[in-house]
Specification:
The protein is built from three helices and no strands.
Amino acid sequence: MKKPTAIKKTLARVRLWVRRNVPPGLRLVVGLILIVLGFFGFLPVLGFWMIPLGIVIAALDLRPIWRKLKG
């Protein structure tokens, strides 16, 4: 099993890659798809790891929206 710091580094690396390579509107869609598919984590191909990853990816697009709404 990985150490917690290794998991955080891996998650940060994935988040940076997504921020650089996935267009902003598509990030929210990809995040929501990962969250929905994560609920089927009991299936062999999918996993529960998809839920937190989807939340992180969707949050990349939600943060600017919250800033605009709050003024």
